[in-house]
Every structure is written in C-alpha cells, then in structure tokens.
Amino acid sequence: MADTGGTPSCHNPNPEVLNVLEALKKASHELQAHPHVTGSSAESDHPDSSSSIKALLELQTESDALLSSDPYLCNLSNHLSTLKSLVQKLRGSKGYSLRSFLTRHASAHSISRVAESIGSEIQAWIDREIVEELMNRLKELNGGGDDEEEVIRLLGRFEKRVSQGFDRELQDLVLKSKLLVRLEESLGNPKWSTRLREHAAFVIAALMKFNKDVFVGLVPLGQTIRALITIASVDSLKVLILLIRSIKSAIVDEIESNGEIPKIIGFLDCKDLQFRLVAMDSILEMGYFGRKEAIEAMLNAGLIEKLMELQRSSLGGALIDSSRYNNDLGHETEDNNIGEGRRSRERKFLDCHPFASCVARFAVQLEVGEGLRQRERRAFKQEVLERVREASDTDAEAATVIAEVLWGSSP
Fold this sequence. Notes:
There is one protein chain. With 411 residues, the chain is mostly helical. It has a domain at 15-129. The protein is built from 22 helices and no strands. The longest helix has 45 residues, at 98-142. Mean pLDDT is 81; it is low at 1-11, 38-49 and 325-335.
C-alpha cells in the first residue's frame, strides 16, 4: 500500500479490534433503522434497536483504548462519544409538550446520522485492511510465496466488496494502492496457478464494472485479453464475457486487432461441453457489440461453418422443432399466452440442445446489437445466408436454417 505519511499500517490488525469493529458495524446498521428507540419504554417494540444502542454504548466505554490507539479509528471513537451524548439527551427528553417532541425528533435524527457515520468509518477501516493485506500477499506470491488459499480468500472477499456498488473512498483507496495494476501484471504470471489467476481476473472484471471510466484506462486491455484466452478455462472466458458486457464495442475492437477472434472461435471444437457453451456465449456477445471489422473477422474465421456443424450435431437442431420435442416428452405447455408458451418450449429444448438454431441466434445478435449500422446489418445478413447455403449438406438443411435467419430466432 502506498505510504500514508508515517501513519502506522493496519496490516495484520489486532483480532480484538476486528471483533469490536464488526460488533459496532452491525449495531450501527440496526440503529439507523430505529433511531427513536433508546432502550426504555419502546424496547419491546424494537428490541434490535434498543440492544444496538446498549451494545454501542458499552463498546464505547470498553473499546476506547483500542480505538484511540489507531489513528485511522480516532474519528470512530469521537462518533461513539457523540452518540453517547445524543442518547442521553434523547432519554432525558420526556413529556408531551411541543418542545419535548421537537427535541426528541432532532435527537433521533442526529443519532441516525451518527450511526451512519459510524458504519462508514468502520467500512473504510476494513477496506484499508483488506487492500493492504491483499497487496502484501500478492507481493509475496510474486516473490515465490505459496500461500495461495489465503490470497484466493482475500480476492473473493474484495470482489464481494467491490460488487456492492460504487464508493468513492474505496475507489481512491484502490487507485492509491495500485491494486488493479498489480493484478493485471500478475494475471499472466506463470508462477500463479490457473485457479488463482481466474480469481484475480474476476476482481479485474468487478473493478471495470465498478467504474469503467476510471479503471479501464489503467491497464492495457490487450494484455488482459491475451492472458484470459491463454488461460483458456471456463472461468477465464466468463470473465471475458463480463468485460465485453462492461466495456462493450471497445474491447471487441481490441480482441479483433490483437488477432484473438480465430482462437475464440476455435474453442468451439473443444471436447469439454461446458467450455464450448461459454465460448458460444462469448461469440454471441461479440456479435452483439462487435463493429464491422470484428464481424468480418468472425465470418472470415469460419464461424458460420462451425455453427452449422454444431447445429447439425446431437446437441443442435432447430428451435422450430421445439413444439414437437415437448409433445414427445409430454411437456406441452398449457399456457394461454402463446408467446410465453413458445418461449417456455424453446427454453426446455435449449436445455437439452444448447446449440440449436445457433446460426440464427448469432444473426439475431447482429440484427439487434449495438455495433453495426443499419446498412451493415443488411449486408452481413446476406453474407450469413450465402455462407449457410455453401455450408449446408442438403437443400432441406439450408432451407431450415435460412428460414430461421430470415424470420429471426429467440437467442
């Protein structure tokens, strides 16, 4: 973690402090929900709130030495002292006069705000601890350490935190620590196991979603894409899909310019079914966001021919056959809504035939996607139809696939 001007590190904090902070955080959240309750007459109505105030006041006394010894927690100690004064003021305001009512209302509002500040201070302290410990562990691994399980645990914890939504203080902390740069640099490190690199990749994707305007420019996307494709696992392709959905056309441009499209299409030949399915999903996402150059590269790499092979396999078929399939299984829908009934049949059919109508599903992505202009959509549709005719084994097969492409098929 970057130097903070001589402030003591919070790495490897005293477990006693952590226990105190977790209790305070839980109590502060409960108090925010019921700030009017002080543990007196209304205690039976809101037991969570009254017990929260009791816990906070007791911890304020017991933890004063612990909290005041850490510079990061001085504000938290001050907030607890303020809370104690506000609760005493609220409890001392009795009677039914207008003045008493206004005093209680103002005090309850102040208690709620202090409780929110307490929760924010605690979360900021925990965030600092996680980032600093994670950075130190990553340095140890890059130096040949082997504490992999602990790093994976920290990566999972940090990913969960980032996924809670935008937080400016957390963003500043990540930027100052250069954590994203460290993760990106390490993604292609041969000393890392595939599992560890996958977890690091998920954190990178979470940060891109957290605030892509800030974090996308901090790492060279080409290196990240190359590392994910080199890992060539189900999870690495899932991360690639997350990045495509987050960064959209720009990352598809990067995939195309780096010559990675043929490799991704080649994954459709993999023996592992789950890997092929995720590869198919990534191809559909690229079809939706890809611009002209990317779509041309996909077609020139033989995508339609491979999709035709998959569609005529035992896991393929045509979605127009889904009604017959459900009748054969005795699962014909009784839904009065024809559109919903059709979608239900198709979902059941796709569960057992995941590559059904895959040519038309790709064509639909081009048609409704964000990457192409209208005239480009029309031109690519004609090219897809021509490639279908050339790749078909029979006229009947060509007619079925062409009909699906022309009329559209549910992706």
